[in-house]
Amino acid sequence: MQKVLIANRGEIAVRIIRACHDLGLQTVAVYSEADAEAMHVHHADEAICIGEAPSAKSYLKIPNIIAACEITSADAVHPGYGFLSENSNFASICESSGLTFIGPSSKTIALLGDKAMAKATAKSVKCPVIPGSEGIVRDLESALKEAQKFGYPIFIKAVAGGGGKGIRIAYSDEDFAQKFIQARTEAEVSFNNPDVYLEKMIVNPRHVEVQVMGDKHGNYVYLGERDCTIQRRRQKLIEEAPSPLVNESLRKKMGQCAVEIVKAAKYHSVGTVEFLLDEKGHFYFMEVNTRIQVEHTVTEELTGVDLVQQQIRIAQGEKLTLRQKDVQLNGHIFELRINAENPAQGFAPSPGQLEHYIPPGGPHVRVDSACYGGYRIPPNYDSMIAKLIVKGRNREEAIAHAKRALKEFHIAGVHTTIPFHQYMLEDKRFLSHEYTIGYIDQLIAEGCNFTR
Q1: Is 376 a catalytic residue?
Q2: If 0-12 CB within 10 Å is exposed, 13-18 middle and 19+ buried, where does residue 195 land?
Q3: Of these residues, 168, 206, 232, 291, which one is catalytic?
C-alpha cells in the first residue's frame, strides 16, 4: 500500500489523511462540486472532483470513485463512515479491482450488515440478544402472531436499516398492521429492501457500545466501552467513556461477547459492537458497525490507541501488537458533537457561512474538524462542524474541562449545538447519569429549548 484514496469528506477525511501521512502514505481526496474549498481537499497530496453536490452524484457514485483510483494510481481506499463505508458491493468492487479496502471483507460486511444474520451470529456465540423473530417476517399475518408471542411494545425494524430509518414501534395489536406497512414502505424507499424483522422493545435502555479490533492472523482485542445514550431521534449527540453504569465485571462480559461475535464473522479491521443495557444491568446485542465510527476519538483518548492507523495496518496484513492485557483505560472522556443546527428550533439545520470560527484549546482538549473561518457549510451533507473531545481524571473533571472548552468555542454565521451542550452539562439528570435513550426526545416533547 502506497497511496490511499479517501472516499469521504469532512472531518473524517481530514482525520484519515493525517493518519496516512503519519504512516508515510500518499493520499488522494475526492470531492463534489460543493466541496471544492473543503479542508480535506487542501490537506491531501492530490484531489479529484467526482461529481455534483448531491451525494448520489458524487460520494455515492461508485464508478466515479473507482475511476478516481485509476486516474491517480491509488492502490487502497478508505471509506470513512457513512456514504459507502458499510456497502458490501462497494467493498467487493474494490477487491475485484485490485484495491485494498481499508475495512473488513465484503463478505463480512454483508453478513453483519444483515440484521437478522448478525443476530444469528451473536446467538451462535451465546451472546444475549433481544427477543424477537427468527429472521425476516414476510407477511402481516405471521408478523402479528410473532408480535403477540413476545408482547408489546415491539420494534418493527428494516433488515438493511441504519440511521434510525425503517423502524416503527407498535404498542398493541390495533396499531401493529399500520406500523408494519409503514416500516416496510420506508425500508423499500431508503434501502431498496422492504424486509423487516421484529424485536422486543427494551424499555428505558442505555446505549453502550464496545470497540473491537481484529487482524488477519486471529488476534482480537476490545478497548473498553462508550456510552452513547444522549441522542436525539437515534442520532448521537454526546458520547462518553467509560460508561458510568458499567463496572469491571460487566465490561469484561460485554467485551468478550463483542470479540466472540466479530471472531465468528471473520472480522479483520476496527469495528464496534453495539448493545442495549436495561434497567437491571442486563445487556443485549444490537448490531455491529463495520467501520470507523464518529466517536472513535473517545476510545483513542481513553486508551492512547490510534484507531485509524490500526485500521490501515490491519489492512496491510500486519499483526496487532496490542494484547488484551495491555489495554489500559485512563481517565474519563466526553465527545460533544458541534453541529450546524438550532436546538431552540427543534434542531433545525442551519447551513451557511462561518463568519468566524475559533475553536478551543489548552490542556485536555481535542477538536476534530474540517471547518475554518469563512468556510461555507453546504446544505447537502451532514451538519457536523466539529467534534469536541475533552478528558479528565474522572467524570466531574472531564465535565469541568468541557464547560471551559465550550466557553472558548466561538462560531458565528450559523446556529450550533453549543447551547445544547452547555444546557446538558448543568442538567441534574445528566450530572447524576440518571437518563435513558429517550431523554432528549422527552425534553423536546416537553418544550425544552435548551437555553438557561
Answers
A1: no
A2: buried
A3: 291
